[in-house]
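Hey everyone, long-time lurker, first post.

I ran two proteins through the pipeline my lab uses and got sequence/structure pairs for each. Pasting them in order. The first:
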Amino acid sequence: LSALAGVSAPPFGAVMRVLWAAALPAGPQRTRGFSLDAVAEEVTFAVGPLAAAVLAVVADPLSSLVVSAGCVALGTALFVTSPRSRAQRGSRQVEVPDARPALRPLRSKGFLPIVLAMTAPGVMLGCVEVAAPAVAAAASSTVLAGALLAVFAAASAIGGLLYGRWDLRARPERQLLVLTLALLAILTATGLLGGVGVAILGFALSGIFLAPTLIVGYLAADARTAPRARTEARSWINPAVNLGAARGAAAFGALTDSVGPGPALAISAIGTLILICGPLALNDRRSGRWAHG
């Protein structure tokens, strides 16, 4: 049933950013639109699970599930009936008769390393979602799990708002590399140092970099693909993050049983660093050569 629910989930992550791109011109305005979108998503991740948990305690788990499903159905209905959504029209026809067909995203130069890199924030998101209750269980505090996740989501929302205010000149690939390195480094230090206080501080600092990393991932995908292929390009980014989250949660859970939550978080972050940052750094170097060319 969980697999069926996951397969049938509406693709809001990709579709919302298509509408943002249609509504706002490329540049600072579109970046701010993406940042607001990321902040809304983080607020949902912070409030939704807490509200569902409260409802499960006050009423029962079935009521919590039904209300959650109802919220998804209502949100979907409001989205697809909105004027901006209904005005969006796709087409398989090339508008200019003699124009070449747009390259598919995976065949565009430098796009595949971006997809690979976007699994990194997903892995860390999956780890954090399991690490919070693991740290809380080790500290014998049920409330701590919700507090840690709320701190992480709130910090991510703040990071998204701050990023939307800045007009950075660096290439999206370089920004993605720096933000990913910062996210992984903070979570590595958090795991190695250990302790409840360190966990709260580490979740807050790392959360600041999560939403900007997601925003830059979409901007980098746009920069690497032709305009007619960007809907498909954005559709690759969202599953990459989700796949990373699934892998991170599974790996962290297995490691926690063996070594504990702190070392498991550090090992997960270091492993992701080794797998991701090499291709991303090479991609950034190549993009610099192409830009100068």
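...and the second, right after it:
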Amino acid sequence: MLPAPLRGAATLLAVLALAALLTTVRHNASAYLTGVWDTGSQTLVYGRIHQMEQGQYAPGGFLGVYTDDWSDDTNRALFRDDTPTDAAAFHPYTHQSGLQGWLFGRVNRLLRHRLPDGLAREAALYWLNSTLFYAAELLVALAVWEEFGPLAAAFGFVSVLLAPWLQRGMKDLYWCLWTWLLPLLAALWLCHCTRVRGKTPRGCWPLVAAACMVRCMCGFEFISTFLILCEAPLVYCWAGGDRRAWLRRMICTGFAAVGGVAAALGAWFIQGVIYFGSAAGSWQNLTGAVTSRVSLTDDMVSNVSVAQVLTRYFVEVDEPLLQFGPLTITLKPLIAVTLLGFALCLAVLALRKKPLAVLAGPALVWVLNLAAPVSWMVLSKAHAYVHVHLVPMLWHFALVPVSCALLVWLVKTAITAVKE
């Protein structure tokens, strides 16, 4: 019975409270209890935090920094032990914007008033990062609940809790996995507002652009995946609504998302101008990093084909996506079971002479969520083929939770058709 603004605020507070509880109960706040993911990249964040603690600022604005020892625990130890470090020891990393290091540096300076111990502040930063990730996943689950019911939302969210990759990666201060969900959340909010009001509020487009901009300023890697996921909710609405109107919204969302990416590139370029002292130097650095990431100039994988990259992640890498005690589920069985669920539901609906169009939206969303991770493997052979410890994480932002949620919905749809 609450007014809409109060209801929204109450929902957000409940989401944050549950996210904080989940983080605390599952001990994700501490790297020493549940492990970490990709410790090397966190060097840039720890270096930046430690640099800001000492009142030092290297040229380049937000750029992450590191000392002479790269991709190890040295910078983390310097921060944790509050070791005085000469300003000349820090070297900016010019292949990213480094917004996350600057933001966590600000939070760290606030925490220092209450937590003088570096180890305690490190745990607090991990706790904050994990809580934000759980909150983002809970908001996605609410959107699933609204469309497919509470049971589908529950299974989708449980897949997050049972994912070993996520339970390590969600703490990583460099990758900031909650920022990976921002474009999707912005698109879900756009669809929700459009359905409720009958038209898309103008503020939704800047929100999509801002979400993509923030995501890219924390790292441009995997961006094709998140741009596809940003369109997935609109494709679902297009399949079940006024297709001409939703097609226009899809196009506008695409322009807004690409605009956000362009803005992030612009911020990166300006940082490069500040650091290199010229637009030409910044442009050369920017284009070199981008072309290397998308496999145009990386000699290391010049002989690697797209088929080899896909074989690596569909066949060779067979680590568990979901784990519950001794029970594990890997990629191929998950895909096979989901396809079987679609086939059986289709057969039941056909036999009971029910409309088959009800499956169109979910099927399109599932295909997009399979294509989203694959897009990065194809676009960025150089990054994907080498970084086997990073790429499998993409399945958890698309295919895994969607498959788990849709399997429940497919079973429910088939049972309902039989009963009727």
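Reply from user beta_strand_b:
Welcome! Quick read of the second one: The chain has a mean pLDDT of 89. The beta strands are 65-66, 91-92, 322-324, 327-329.
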